[in-house]
Amino acid sequence: MILFNIPPYCGREDQYVLEAIHSHKICGDGAFSKKCHEWLTERTGAARAFLTTSGTHALDMAALLCQFQPGDEVILPSYTFSSTANAFVLAGAVPVFVDIRPDTMNIDEKLIEDAITPRTRAICVMHYAGVACEMDAILDIARRHDLKVVEDAAQGVMATYKGRALGAIGDYGCYSFHETKNYSMGEGGAILLREDDPRAEVIREKGTNRARLLRGQVDKYTWEDLGSSYLPSELNAAYLYGQLEMADEINAARLHSWQLYREGLAPLEREGCIDWQAVPEGCVHNGHMFYVKARDISERTALIAFLRERGVQSVFHYVPLHSATAGLRFGRFHGEDKYTTRESERLLRLPMHYGLADSDVEKAVEAVTAFYKR
Known about the structure:
Blueprint: H1 13-22, H2 31-44, E1 48-52, H3 55-65, E2 73-77, H4 82-90, E3 94-98, E4 120-126, H5 135-145, E5 148-152, E6 160-161, E7 164-165, E8 172-176, E9 189-193, H6 198-204, H7 210-214, H8 234-244, H9 247-270, E10 275-276, E11 283-284, E12 290-293, H10 297-309, H11 325-330, E13 332-333, H12 340-344, E14 347-350, H13 358-372
């Protein structure tokens, strides 16, 4: 069976984890956390970057930094993971979902402004498959309406929009280093800040000024603000750093596999059997996933079963949040659901991970082709 995902492993992770163990510093913010923070700021241009225990917790921190009041609203796509909306609900905000673009599966920037009300305080975008949303238009809307912009860039590490790193364009950017992502620490993430905000490290340190204590800036630490324990273990940071050192090699390998899929499935796309991911001008993606779109949900279900019989594991993705139990309870959809549900029911993801063999890509392409040539 060609597995849909295998967590990345480069070879130095074991050594670095042992170094962390023998340093007798295995809680958060040790030497390897510092190395990861430096890598993130240098590679993205963010003012500050902090590792977190998950991409979800990075979003939680971003939502707390937005300082919502009860009843405030945040505009976001419905086609995203539950964490994207959960973070704002936990912070007291109401998610207002708008439709997506069918070409990228990202929020439709042309629909955002109509969803703004006097209670709107932020826009949260999600860069699906590492392909950027139309950030210039979104930032312009945010500037004119005095709104915060949060980037859910969980899938966007190493991807760019007009030369700018995803996650470092809005006010706050959130990465995931889950085992399904391009770079992994098992469970983990990071928050990026466009401008330094002293509240961030307070929120991350359980609402205390402990970080300032460790720098010798205060003589005792106290509870100052809302917060939680968002620091990952130094063991996780050590594991991650072994991959960040190899970030360019991992990125190149994934893009190579993505391109093989693209070339192999091009005849089916030209014949109209499938649709696939668009990469607009100015967007440089990171090979996070390769997906195709079947005609409808019935065809997708049949294709998944067909691939499984031929040893290829494939999966579909999100069920739109506005149709979920919690989405109906906590949020609302603004405008027409023209594409969100329809396109989500067509999409199918093919195996994609670091170390995927060319022969495995070819086998997956042959299986998809065989399905449509029956």
